[in-house]
Design goal:
Helices cover 11% and strands 36% of the residues. The protein has seven helices and 85 strands. It has an eight-stranded mixed beta sheet with strand order 27-26-34-30-35-32-33-31. The protein has an eight-stranded mixed beta sheet with strand order 57-56-64-60-65-62-63-61. α1 crosses α7 (831-876). The longest helix has 46 residues, at 831-876. It starts with 8 loop residues before the first helix and ends with a strand. The chain crosses the membrane at residues 437-458, 843-867. It comes from Xanthoceras sorbifolium.
């Protein structure tokens, strides 16, 4: 294909733009020597292809840096050389200098970075190891003279060492990037502190920000949620004589793990998702406010579960009561009563010796002093020394004592250490008096409480929380959640507490009522003698006898829970199935309308059925995974096992997640399968995944030959070459009728226009959830197309490793467009449809070339202007960022005063409300590169409350907010196209200007009057602010409603909306795709009777309006 033309201008522009806008990682060569440097767009690759070294540009940056990154889809950068001196164009070179150093040069041969080896060497080369370490080797001696692991940036790799040397003052530490788009040295650093007992610290501008707690030879005592040493773990080596120490890690279970110090000061543990080029965040430190160093000041204790989280240690009180009550706890606490050893009063209290209060499960304070005294001597030594105010003992450390302020104390609820605080005898006496009261009161209250609890236990036992008083026999988790996993007499409850579970004469397990009627039985066909039932650790209830062993188990008759090692099965010959069946409602465990299990129609799939009609399917099983589920590869997590016997017509599926053995799957009464995982260290459960996730997951949502795309509006469209069967119904949003073929296939009937020679062909579709009813053969991929084309009844085919060739003969049902994973799918079309596609493509290419030339020229101009301004913007701008992955983490900018036609605001400029409570300007949510105009809180949270161009984002930083000629507030892109407008219908000929009020409302004002012509509160997005009105007008049909974001990184309109509903009595509704999802209950003049107070409604019955 000819790419040049017009003097080669398009190629030059394309190359220029590709260079500036892409993180381009180049083509690999082998090594770096003085005679063979690497230039921009060239790389070297480690021998196992795990890592690459070369030049790159971070997102939203055109600067070029030399770095090392993972050679996978993520391209996660682990090291940067010239982080503080970027190359400003593509002229960078990495080579070996005359003195043997590795250097980065710009186009003017200036040294931007050097390995700075002090001794000169000749005959040197650089090698990238499989560990990600870049090593400078002396070829003559074979020894290493420098490596990148000695000069880390923000990433701690396997076997890398963070170290400290008190004598020389040398430290090897992590240092954060300034921002995700700027790898220059940020304000956060992390490394080892050797003040008596080694600890890992994060510092913010050299001030402690977080600490790991003391190292006891096995683990860091301030980290409760992981024992890293038992996972292959951390190693800390200390040399007391030399005054040095280093820490490193090697996780044998997951050797790809690494730690990154984010630009927000968090250490993030990233583990590779098994079998994928993706990374998951396993742990983050600090995790909450209590993890922040010294959050509660001296002698304060932090409890993340408390409200407020800070309190004074027993025997202490706030130093400044007023500031403490305001939530400013940094001033800490002071002792309430002086210690006896510090001052003896005149009332003979000299004999009343100080004592110690014991605190359990504590993150012990900083500044501990260590001695080798045994545990029984530790208390005695502290008590005999008046300067000792607390002590603790750990087997791996020994006796620890504290002399000064107790800083950074935290209450844990698992692990932690016993901590003993010195207090005056009077404080101990007060504690004992309180204890007497505490003991007496429970005796009285306890008698009453036990009676009450016994009554409630009688009502609740063996059933989920609900309004039912019926009694069931069941199995539940023996923890705080008491989650029920199995119910015996689900369809025949007891109506009193006379029930009995026993073994019948025939050896069956039975549930009897007070009249000895059998309400439920295990229904074992053969009689058994001397039978017994045992509840196993798996949650399986097993009926056994001495002769036959296990004769029945609850796992063979599941209810709504699919447990580890349980098998869901099907037998095509006998028709027998082991299925999950939902509860009728959360308070009624009787058999509901939903069931879930295996279907064996040619290729095994998991289905959810609603009254035996397909409701959701997992997609075909390929031996590793279900290809219709994109967000989790369960088999790689220890996962699912599907065993199929084609000859017998049977199949079963079970699972075991070794990384999380407590996981189970629940089929809810609403027909959703929820994967529930236990919260680490807690008796709580979280829903990790749920299916179906959206309307597109519902079976056959778009009918035959329709395809569903959850990102589109409307979500349903016909497959290429097809058209709606009933256009009128389709346009109404009733897509179940599906689509029909637009042109007859050549093989079905030859027309009279010589199309006999024009054979049918296949249209390729990518990342598809392939339809139901696939027929499988074991032909090769090439043969698959040929066989389908030669058989007129074959209308589509696909090939998947693990399945083979799949072909379809009938209606294509339940097809879905994915954007991650998915399968290539080929649909048979008439030649004229394929030819039409080629003609359309010619038009697209022609138009694209013309439009591309113009667009790239404009972009190049703006790019040049942007680069000129960039340095000035760096000095002025203040980048406001929060944690990666949060919807509010964004790049916001620098404030100017106002917006007028002559003074617009550009990207990285803002306007601020009078009280500085709110800012208005450009931002990017979370990990998105798109730019939006919005309003956010001008505080640490940067919570976004309003977005202008939510459905039309800018894809670069060329955006402008200004006043148009007709007085509207508009957002323009780099081509001066309006991507959003306030859309005031009447032209405002006088000057207009926006003002950001202290309420967060952006108001467009006439400058010659006090009147507003538009305000953002009239067009809310997802946030309901104080003094904002949500309303409805029955006469005009106008509504003021909230509309959700699509997801935390995409502020475009989501599927949820909220506002006042259309009813005789006003009430608030949340709708999902216009269907009611929640309601507040009617307004009674004072409150919504279904929620707590806090709102006001104004109703005008004559006008037919209501406002919230």
């Amino acid at each position: 294909m000819e790419l040049s033309g017009g003097g080669g201008l398009p190629i030059a522009l394309i190359l220029l733009l590709l260079f500036y806008f892409c993180s381009d990682f180049g083509a690999a060569i082998d090594t770096i020597t003085a005679s063979q440097p690497i230039r921009d767009h060239e790389t070297i690759v480690s021998s196992d292809n795990a890592f690459k070294l070369g030049f790159f540009s971070p997102v939203n940056s055109t600067n070029r840096y030399l770095g090392i990154w993972y050679n996978d889809k993520s391209e996660a950068v682990i090291w940067v050389a010239n982080r503080d001196k970027p190359v400003e164009d593509a002229s960078g070179v990495v080579t070996i200098s005359e003195d043997g150093n590795l250097v980065v040069l710009n186009g003017q041969k200036e040294v931007l970075w050097s390995s700075k080896v002090s001794n000169s060497f000749t005959n040197v080369s650089a090698q990238l190891l499989d560990s990600g370490n870049l090593v400078l080797n002396n070829i003559t001696t074979g020894g290493s003279i420098w490596d990148s692991f000695q000069q880390p940036t923000d990433t701690l790799m396997r076997r890398m060492r963070l170290s400290t040397d008190k004598r020389t003052g040398e430290n090897v530490q992590l240092t954060s990037w300034t921002s995700p788009s700027d790898p220059s040295t940020g304000s956060f650093s992390a490394g080892i502190s050797l003040l008596n007992i080694p600890q890992v610290f994060i510092w913010n501008n050299n001030l402690p920000f977080w600490r790991s707690g003391q190292w006891n030879g096995r683990e860091f005592m301030g980290i409760t949620n992981v024992n890293s040493v038992y996972l292959g773990g951390f190693e800390l080596v200390e040399d007391n004589e030399e005054g040095s120490a280093y820490v490193s890690f090697d996780f044998s279970i997951d050797p790809s793990t690494y730690f990154i110090l984010s630009s927000q000061g968090r250490i993030i543990q990233r583990d590779r998702v098994s079998g994928k080029d993706e990374w998951a965040v396993s742990y983050t430190y600090p995790q909450n406010d209590c993890d922040i160093y010294g959050m509660c000041g001296s002698f304060g204790s932090c409890d993340a579960r408390g409200k407020p989280i800070c309190s004074c240690l027993r025997g202490f009180e706030p130093k400044n009561r007023e500031e403490w009550n305001r939530g400013n706890w940094t001033g800490g606490c002071v002792r309430r009563t002086p210690l006896q050893c510090e001052s003896v009063n005149k009332t003979g209290e000299a004999d009343k010796e100080d004592g110690f209060l014991k605190f359990g499960m504590i993150k012990i304070p900083d500044f501990a002093e260590r001695t080798s005294a045994p545990e029984d001597k530790c208390r005695e030594l502290c008590l005999s020394n008046c300067s000792c105010i607390a002590y603790s003992y750990d087997v791996g450390i020994g006796c620890m004592s504290w002399r000064d302020n107790l800083t950074d104390v935290q209450q844990f609820y698992s692990k932690g250490t016993d901590f003993y605080l010195r207090v005056a005898n009077s404080e101990l006496a007060a504690d004992k008096k309180d204890m007497k009261v505490v003991i007496i009161v429970p005796v009285v209250v306890g008698t009453v409480a036990i009676a009450i609890c016994a009554f409630f236990l009688w009502r609740w036992m063996a059933k989920r929380k609900g309004n039912s008083t019926n009694r069931y026999v069941g199995i539940w988790y023996n923890d705080k959640s008491e989650a029920v996993i199995w119910v015996a007499n689900r369809n025949k409850p007891l109506n009193d507490s006379s029930g009995v579970v026993t073994i019948s004469e025939e050896g069956k397990l039975v549930v009897l009522n007070g009249q000895n009627e059998v309400l439920w039985s295990s229904n074992v066909s053969n009689s058994a003698t001397n039978a017994s039932a045992q509840l196993l650790d798996s949650g399986n209830l097993v009926l056994q006898d001495n002769i036959n062993g296990d004769i029945w188990e609850s796992f063979q008759e599941p209810t709504d829970a699919f447990m580890r090692w349980m098998k869901l099965s099907t037998n095509a010959k006998t028709g027998e199935k082991v299925l999950q069946t939902s509860w009728k409602s959360p308070s009624d465990p009787s058999t509901g309308s939903f069931s879930a299990g295996l279907d064996l129609l040619n290729i095994p799939q998991i289905f959810i059925w609603n009254n035996n009609i397909p409701y959701w399917r997992a997609g075909q099983w390929n031996g590793r995974e279900f290809i219709g589920i994109t967000n989790v590869d369960t088999v790689y997590l220890g996962g699912f096992q599907l065993v199929e016997d084609s000859q017998e017509g049977t199949a079963s599926i079970s699972f075991e997640f070794p990384l999380d053995p407590s996981t189970y799957f629940l089929l809810t009464s609403h027909g959703r399968t929820e994967q529930r995982d236990r919260v680490d260290g807690k008796d709580e459960w979280v829903v990790r995944h749920a299916y179906p996730e959206n309307d597109c997951d519902l079976y056959g949502w778009c009918g035959a030959y329709g395809i569903c795309d959850a990102t589109k509006k409307p979500i349903c469209s016909c497959l290429r070459g097809f058209q709606p069967k009933n256009v009128q119904e389709w346009n109404r949003g009733n897509w179940t009728g599906g689509c029909v073929r637009r042109k007859t296939l050549q093989c079905e009937g030859v027309n009279r226009t010589s199309e006999a020679n024009e054979e049918d062909g296949f249209l390729k579709m990518e990342k598809i959830k392939v339809p139901d009813f696939a027929e499988r053969t074991y032909d090769s991929e090439d043969k698959c197309r040929e066989l389908c084309l030669s058989n007129c009844s074959c209308i589509a085919y696909a090939y998947a490793v693990g399945i083979g060739c799949m072909k379809w003969r009938d209606n294509l049902i339940d097809t879905q467009q994915f954007y991650g994973k998915g399968t290539e799918f080929y649909i048979r079309l008439a030649h004229s449809e394929l030819d039409k596609d080629k003609k359309d493509m010619k038009v697209v290419i022609t138009v694209s070339v013309v439009v591309g030339v113009v667009t790239m020229t404009i972009c190049t101009l703006f790019l040049w202007r942007w680069m000129v301004k960039r340095q000035a913007m760096k000095d002025k701008s203040k980048t406001l960022q929060v944690d990666e992955g949060d919807r509010n983490s964004s790049n916001f900018g620098t404030a100017i005063d106002t917006i007028t036609t002559s003074r617009p605001i550009r990207d990285h400029e803002t306007i601020t409300s009078n009280s500085s409570a709110f800012k208005f300007g450009f931002f990017s949510p979370g990990n998105s590169l798109n730019r939006y105009v919005g309003i956010w809180y001008n505080d640490k949270s940067k919570t976004v409350i309003w977005v202008a161009n939510r459905n039309k984002p800018l894809n670069c930083t060329s955006g402008v907010v200004t006043i148009s000629e007709d007085g509207n507030l508009v957002v323009l892109n780099g081509q001066n196209q309006v991507v959003w407008s306030s859309n005031v219908p009447n032209s405002v000929t006088v000057n207009a200007g926006p003002r950001l009020l202290d309420t967060g409302n952006l108001v467009l004002l006439r400058t010659n009057s006090n009147g507003s012509i538009w305000e953002s509160f009239q067009e809310p997005t997802d946030t309901f602010m104080s003094k904002m009105k949500l309303g409805t007008d029955e006469r005009t049909g106008e509504k003021l409603q909230l509309t959700s974001w699509k997801d935390p990184f995409d502020p475009s309109i989501g599927c949820f909306s909220a506002g006042i509903g259309p009813s005789n009595m006003p009430e608030v509704f949340i709708w999902t795709n216009n269907s009611p999802y929640w309601r507040s209950g009617p307004w009674n003049g004072r409150a919504f009777i279904g929620v707590q107070d806090g709102f006001d409604i104004m109703v005008d019955n004559q006008e037919g309006t209501a406002y919230l």
